[in-house]
Write a structure and sequence with these properties.
The protein is 63% helix and 1% strand. With 1338 residues, it is mainly alpha-helical. It has a two-stranded antiparallel ribbon. It has a two-stranded antiparallel sheet with strand order 3-6. A two-stranded antiparallel sheet has the order 4-5. A hairpin with a 4-residue loop joins strand 1 and strand 2. The chain is elongated and about 175 Å long. The N and C termini lie far apart (139 Å). One of its GO terms (cellular component) is THO complex part of transcription export complex.
């Protein structure tokens, strides 16, 4: 045998020492090695006495087994080492052995000593001693119990009593454990006695035996938990190993019982949830009473289950069971074990130390460097495993303090160390425990606020992933179908929250939203996903709920609002869970218009982020950027709405451009304030602009150059809409709408990024740093020239203002790449074909694209009109009595607006003058040749005018005004007539390939241009002052287009003088007339062809252009009459296109009115007079026919009166009496006499033949029935259908009923008698029917 080392020997307990020493003394090792080992071990003071006693016992055992053999020298040497314990040796070893070891005194009588030893052994081991046998209680146990309850128990006294009275060690241990369990305050005093009396291998079974029948089980269980933490001083081992004790309390039978009860409990909970989700039509409870619950009493009586709450304070207890077993136990006993687990967590030292850090007096400078819980990783390392075990049970709801403190600790650690943590572990903890557990605290805003303190320190991308994991595969019933993926308590909370939310939303209205908002907020505190999913479902179906819903969110917590932002993004992306909206169509069934749910969601998104600007909306912009990158543009309405509503930039949205009035179009040439006033028609809505939300949207777009990226993506994806590949072709109208939406969104976003309300220099500076150069936009990002210049134009204008020395331009470094220079103009030559620069110069190209309508045109009339309107409003508010505070605020606003507009007008007028001077200085270098050519005009139109005119109404008017400016300045090389000839023909022919927005832009250009051309045609003074002698008003005689032959209009030639030929002559009025007739005919022929086309877009675009030009075109009657003829089929009911029919009818009426107002300037007087005479004759014929009908109705009414005049009602019929009948007859006669006979109405001159005048019907108030009408007389029951007094109809009258009676009746009334006549007519008709029915019965 190999001898153990000294350290190995000292680590053993008393029993192990006996075995080891016995083996050593019997081994073949040398005596010196054994003696050295024992000698070194005895030098260790803590174990010296116990080791000496163990050596003595082993020598006694060996001497007893080998009594016949002589004593070993090794024994003698070992005994000599134990000389200090001679008193114990004298009572244990044989006297002869003591004598050989020399331990006996030299003068002792050996024979007498041996005799005393024999007497002692006899009395000790062989003599029976009995005490109080009748009372079954020995004096020894009494003394031992008295010792344990004394004030100073000690080990020596306990040993003496046990040895003297031969007490049973197990019973003594039992008494000691009992005293320790009932006297917690004396445990430390009795611990040495327990160490001496308790064998470590027998303590666990003894305790288990005591637990079986002990009346003090709780105290004993608590004592057991205390014993597991006590270590033996000698060996540094646990007195009662927890694993050893647990093996007696928990076995396979308990495992099987636990699993079985858990499955039964789980199935019972699922059945309850299914019953809860059912809708009861009987009005009773939706959840029927379930069977008796699962019987947990047997498992609850298990000693192991009862012991667990006492040992959970210790970390080693969590290793006694598997994780799923812990989860099952907490689920079955949440009130006992779950609460104990939460309490145990808060008792740990690291938790106490970390909790001190979140208290207000905490001072970080006084904290120790090694304090626990100072980082995220430390906190998560302590709490993740125990909290994951209780997550499924939801027992944390019984300890909200734990949840709140944990949130605050994590929030503090995140604020101090945002980057120094493992994000995956943190996200897993939030996803598995912290975020779902919020559902366990209903109506608790403090808990929601504490959790938001953690989540707001996390980037929104990670937060949205957490929300998605919280939502899972579905909510409410969808989650119940997939109940294995969520805890039962979470599904139950979703179902209850869904019911509460729907109950509140049913009662939500504009009048009750303040009260309902509180109940909505209470549910949102714990279940925001369920509430907002329900809200968004209703909003997508009913768009009139948007404003009310936003107002109802006034009390919702920030965490819930952030979840709503995630829900909006999920609805947009089609990933809101449940699989119900993954591939929802974003178009209606017609395949052209945006679906209702998407429109409603767009409106709600804008209003929501406007009302709550602090809520994160980067996710929306990031999603839109991703969609644009993939080529999808259906969600552009969301971006547009965010800019208009949240950003407050609705005035920049000009769509649909066809609906803009002339004042609005010209107002867009002014300042930002003028745009706001004109686009809103001067109506100011309080709260329409939220500065905070506008600034928030701008800051987000400026972060990481997101706004510029969106602009570039929009410019790229716009062309993909038209030319992109698709599995199936899209409708042309849809392509046009999407294309126009892209263009409008670009304009709004560009204006929003470069024209803020607070600091323009900062916005321009940031935009300049973000935007690539013009060359990069064109070459790298493959943008067309017009779009690239459009993005760079604000910077070019800022650079120009900086060069002019204007104020508030302090960003020179950022604008250096955009300053006009020879180098920049030279770089343009590589962007277009070389032949382009042989016809136009780069100076013209740069000048044209670098300016805007604001630089060329100051709408002074619009400025003055708005200022006058505001001044009148100031006068009205000043003269108002009892002016409220809101009126005073409005008065101040109106005054400031008026003053600002006046200042803006002065500033813009000065700016326009300076820009015009700059352009006039450059005009000589616009064209390479001073001799104009058709190629140069065509190039200028193709490269400059046409692409920019398509970008918006502002640019279309800019193009028209720029051309007029070139003509006014007499630009060398610019031929005005040649350019207009090229532009008008090209624009008129482009009607077959335009979108609705582009058609509106072309209409603005053509109207502004045609207004000038028409004025020159019909005003000789204007022609003489603006055309005669101008460099651009010469024509070449050899040009085949300008031959002497007259130019036909539409499909034929109209009257006009021939052009006088010469080699190169100045344009005379006669020559200009030929040009005018040609352009007029070109527009007319194209318009007629488009209106007769079978394509929808051709008709639509043509009507848009013609409607805009109605006050200036057509001026020739032949074209106008042809247009009226072509419009007739479009106005008929057979036209299935409702919008085309309505637009055609509107334009037809406008065209007739324009003709009557004299817009058809070439219409002769004879034609006008003949048309008026024909209209008067038609009106007279219609009046005569109406009079004849009146006479016929009167005769029929008199005939009916004669037939039923003597009837006075049946006996007992109280509805009509003789007196009432006579009074009514007299009253009606007085009415007729007062009004007199129906006069003949004079002609009104209206083309439709309608007139006012003519008296009432007959005295009976009934219109006669014509024979050809073929209808039966109306009965009394039908009178509700023709009630015209303002009451609600039971059903609408048929068209035939309206045409035959109501329309005739209305046409015969005097203007002041319409209401009374209608009432008499209705009452008379009812009385007439009643009499006829009485006659039939009679």
């Amino acid at each position: 045998m190999t001898l153990p080392t000294v350290s190995e020997l000292l680590q053993q307990d008393r029993d192990q020492w006996n075995n080891t020493l016995l083996a050593c003394l019997q081994s073949t090792a040398s005596e010196s090695e054994i003696l050295n080992l024992l000698q070194e071990a005895l030098q260790h003071e803590p174990t010296k006495q116990s080791l000496m006693l163990a050596i003595a016992d082993v020598i006694w055992l060996l001497s007893s087994l080998q009594s016949d053999s002589p004593s070993s020298s090794l024994w003698i040497a070992c005994l000599q080492l134990l000389s200090s314990e001679s008193s114990y040796l004298f009572t244990t070893l044989d006297p002869s052995l003591l004598e050989q070891a020399g331990l006996l005194p030299p003068n002792i009588n050996t024979e007498a000593f041996f005799k005393k030893i024999r007497l002692y052994n006899t009395s000790t081991f062989y003599k029976q001693q009995k005490y109080n046998l009748l009372a079954e209680e020995s004096e020894g146990y009494a003394k031992y119990l008295a010792l344990l309850t004394s004030t100073c128990p000690n080990v020596e006294a306990s040993r003496t009593i046990m040895a003297t009275f031969h007490l049973d060690p197990n019973r003594c241990l039992d008494l000691c454990l009992h005293i320790i369990s009932v006297s917690e305050e004396r445990r430390d005093e009795l611990l040495p006695v327990l160490f001496d009396a308790a064998p470590t291998n027998k303590l666990a079974p003894l305790l288990y035996f005591q637990l079986q029948e002990s009346p003090h089980q709780p105290a004993l269980l608590k004592c057991m938990a205390w014993l597991t933490q006590q270590s033996i001083p000698i060996h540094a081992k646990k007195l009662l190993p927890m694993e050893q004790m647990w093996s007696y309390l928990w076995g396979p039978e308990q495992d099987e019982a636990l699993n079985e009860l858990y499955q039964m409990k789980y199935q019972q909970d699922v059945d309850e949830l299914k019953a809860l989700s059912k809708v009861s039509l009987s009005g009773g409870s939706t959840a029927e009473k379930q069977n008796n619950g699962v019987d947990l009493s047997k498992l609850a009586k298990e000693l192991a289950v009862q012991w667990l709450p006492y040992i959970m304070d210790h970390e080693e207890s969590w290793f006694l069971l598997e994780d799923h077993q812990w989860s099952q136990l907490f689920t079955l006993f949440p009130n006992d074990l779950g609460v104990a687990a939460c309490a145990a967590l808060r008792k740990q030292d690291w938790w106490i130390q970390a909790s001190k850090r979140i208290l207000p007096p905490w001072n970080p400078e006084q904290a120790s460097d090694d304090s626990a819980g100072s980082t995220i990783d430390d906190v998560l390392g302590h709490v993740m495993k125990p909290l994951f075990r209780i997550a499924e049970s939801g027992c944390v709801q019984y300890d909200p303090i734990l949840y709140s403190q944990l949130c605050r600790i994590l929030a503090l650690c995140l604020r101090e160390n945002k980057k120094e943590h493992d994000s995956e572990i943190l996200d897993r903890f939030l996803q598995t425990f912290l975020l779902p557990s919020l559902s366990l605290f209903p109506s608790n805003p403090a808990i929601s606020h504490d959790l938001w303190g953690v989540l707001q320190e996390i980037p929104y991308r990670r937060r949205y992933k957490l929300y998605a994991a919280w939502r899972g595969k579905g909510l409410e019933k969808a989650a119940l179908r997939e109940h294995n993926t969520k805890p039962i308590w979470l599904i139950r909370g979703e179902l209850e929250a869904g019911k509460s939310a729907r109950y509140s939303l049913k009662r939500l209205s504009k009048d009750t939203y303040r009260d309902i908002s509180r109940s909505i907020a209470q549910v949102c505190f714990s279940q925001p996903l369920v509430v907002f999913t329900t809200i968004l479902n209703q909003i997508e179906s009913y768009d009139n709920l948007v404003g009310v819903m936003v107002d109802a969110l006034m009390y919702v917590a920030p965490l819930s609002l952030d979840v709503l932002g995630f829900c909006i993004l999920s609805r947009l992306s089609g990933s809101s869970g449940g699989g119900l909206d993954v591939n929802r169509s974003r178009l209606k069934e017609d395949g052209v218009n945006v679906s209702q749910w998407l429109q409603s969601l767009e409106s709600f998104t804008g209003e929501f982020y406007k009302r709550f600007p602090a809520i994160e909306c980067r996710g929306i912009f990031g999603y839109l950027m991703h969609r644009l990158k993939e080529g999808h543009v259906m969600e552009l309405g969301v971006l547009r709405t965010l800019l208009k509503t949240s950003g407050g930039w609705s005035f920049a949205d000009y769509a649909p451009a066809a609906s803009l009035s002339t004042t609005q179009v010209e107002g867009r040439a002014g300042s930002t304030l003028l745009k706001r006033e004109t686009m809103s028609f001067g109506v100011h809505v309080s709260g329409a602009f939220n500065f905070r939300s506008s600034q928030q949207v701008r800051n987000i777009l400026q972060e990481q150059d997101m706004g510029v990226i969106l602009l570039i993506l929009l410019s790229q994806v716009r062309n993909q809409i038209v030319y992109g590949d698709s599995d199936r072709p899209k409708p042309v109208k849809l392509i046009g709408n999407l294309y126009d939406t892209c263009q409008v969104t670009i304009a709004i976003l560009l204006d929003f990024l470069t024209n803020p309300t607070d600091d323009k220099d900062a916005a321009i500076s940031h935009y300049a740093r973000s935007l690539p150069s013009l060359t990069e936009l064109h070459n790298t990002y493959m943008m067309d020239m017009a779009s690239a210049w459009m993005l760079c134009r604000p910077l070019l204008q800022a650079a120009e203002r900086m060069e002019l020395g204007r104020k508030h331009i302090s960003i020179k470094d950022n604008l250096l790449p955009f300053i006009s220079s020879d180098e920049s103009r030279k770089s343009l030559e590589g962007m277009l074909p070389p032949e382009t620069w042989s016809h136009i110069s780069s100076m013209l190209f740069e000048t044209f694209f670098s300016h805007s309508l604001y630089d060329l045109f100051c709408p002074e009339d619009v400025y003055n009109s708005e200022i006058s309107r505001l001044d009148r409003e100031v006068e009205r508010l000043s003269n108002a009595k009892n002016t409220a505070s809101s009126d005073a605020t409005e008065l101040e606003r109106v005054k400031n607006t008026s003053a600002d507009l006046a200042e803006d007008m002065v500033v813009q007028a000065s700016h326009v003058d300076s820009i015009r001077k700059i352009i006039e200085q450059r005009k000589d270098s616009f064209f390479p040749s001073t001799t104009s050519s058709k190629e140069a005009m065509a190039t200028f139109f193709t490269r400059c005018i046409y692409p920019r005119c398509m970008q918006g109404p502002d640019d279309a008017m800019y193009c028209a005004r720029f051309i007029q400016l070139l003509h006014e300045m007499g630009t060398p090389g610019f031929n005005t007539l040649t350019f207009y000839d090229c532009a008008i023909i090209a624009f008129s022919r482009s009607l077959y390939g335009l979108t609705e927005g582009e058609a509106a832009n072309v209409s603005i250009f053509l109207r502004d241009t045609w207004k000038l051309l028409s004025n020159l045609r019909y005003d000789d003074n204007a022609f003489a002052s603006e055309v005669a002698g101008k460099p651009g008003c010469f024509v070449a005689a050899n040009d085949p287009k300008f031959s002497l032959v007259g130019v036909p209009e539409a499909s034929g030639q109209e009257d006009g003088d021939d052009v006088q030929s010469s080699s190169s002559r100045e344009v005379t009025p006669d020559v200009y007339e030929q040009f005018y007739n040609k352009w007029h005919a070109s527009i007319g022929a194209t318009s007629i062809g488009a209106l007769q086309s079978k394509e929808y877009m051709h008709k639509r675009c043509c009507l848009i252009v013609l409607s805009r030009m109605i006050d200036v075109y057509p001026t020739r009657p032949k074209t106008g009459n042809k247009l009226l003829t072509v419009l007739e089929p479009l106005q008929s009911e057979s036209n299935t296109l409702a919008d085309i029919r309505a637009a055609a009818q509107a334009y037809s009426m406008q065209l007739v009115k324009a003709r009557d107002d004299g817009v058809w300037k070439e219409e002769d007087a004879a034609t006008v007079q003949a048309r008026q005479e024909k209209e008067q004759a038609d009106a007279a014929a219609r009046q005569k026919k109406a009079e004849e009908q009146m006479e016929e109705m009167k005769r029929e009414s008199e005939k009916i009166s004669e037939e039923i005049g003597e009837w006075r009602g049946r006996p007992g019929d109280r509805r009509v009496t003789a007196r009432s009948y006579e009074s009514n007859e007299n009253r009606r006669g007085e009415d007729w006499r007062g009004r007199g006979a129906p006069p003949s109405a004079p002609s009104t001159g209206r083309s439709d033949g309608r007139y006012a005048g003519a008296g009432s019907y007959s005295s009976m108030g009934r219109a006669p029935r014509r024979e050809e009408d073929g209808r039966r007389p109306r009965t009394g029951g039908d009178s509700s259908r023709i009630n015209v007094s303002g009451a609600k109809r039971s059903r609408p009258p048929s068209p035939s009923e309206q045409d035959s009676s109501n329309k005739r009746a209305r046409s015969q009334l005097e203007p002041g008698e319409e209401a009374s006549s209608r009432g008499n007519d209705d009452g008379g008709r009812r009385r007439g029917h009643m009499r006829s029915r009485g006659k039939e019965r009679r």
